[in-house]
Amino acid sequence: MTFTRIGQTGQTLAAGSQPVGGTRLGGTELEIRPQGSSEIAVWLASKAPVDMDKAAVSRARSHGVDLAVKFEGRYPTGPNGEYLPSYQVATACAIEGTDEQRKAALADVVKFMTPAPVRSIEEWIAELSVITAGRGKEGFDAELLLNAYSARLSEFPADVVRHALLKHSWKWFPTWAELEAVCKAKTGPRKHMIAALSQPAPDTEPTRRPPTQEERDRIAALIAEQFPNVPQSWRDRAAEEATKGDCMTDEPKRVGGQA
Predict the structure, then answer these.
(1) Helix 37-45, helix 118-131: angle, nearest 10
(2) SS3 (DSSP) at 24
(3) Which pTM was predicted?
(4) Roughly what angle, to the nearest 10 degrees, separates helices 99-109 and 49-62?
(5) Distance from CA of residue 32 to its chain's centroid?
(6) How buried is residue 258: exposed, middle or buried, by Cβ count under 10 Å (0-12/13-18/19+)?
(7) Any idea which of 32-36, 104-108, 123-127, 128-132 has the lowest mean pLDDT?
(8) What is the greatest pairwise CA distance in the chain?
């Protein structure tokens, strides 16, 4: 399989510049600086997907949003019933935060979805073709494969694509289905974070309180008015049941509109 010669990749994003509002994880500066998407992509490609997932959670937390991604195990088997390596996939994301906090966090977290430039992806594919057993494609067929793979891989974050191509263990040059499965699994946590951040915050539970004596008297009077022909003991029990516990949600009001 013949591809373009490999160039140097994985440079540090904005090396030597002052960090802007980032966080640290394992001694490595993890932050999104206000450069263009190509520089962000280079920075992402130098990191591991699991670290970028943690960094995305940290960035959301800096805006007051708590994210908790839920994972489930997958235990695949081969065509002959043999056990294949297990892995985890993200299935949901719990979230806490106001609408404004979610909006601010979303603007940061979507940067972690920045794809790599096509040229970089093509270089990684070429490197993969050197270190795996290939399919013997040459010339025009190899070019078609390179174009088809790079276009599809451009839909995934740069760090995920580089991991899938160069860090994941492949004996044979992978099919697109195999590559896509790895990319989807690695992108899943961020997809669920973004989906959660895109949802409006639920309405807050109203503060409840016990009724005042004046409110109890009004409810008892209303029951007596509606059910004049039932025994007084029944009306008393109904009024007691209706005013039990913290059943009021508004501020108490007094006669004449005075609180």
Answers:
(1) 20
(2) strand
(3) 0.68
(4) 150
(5) 16
(6) exposed
(7) 32-36
(8) 97
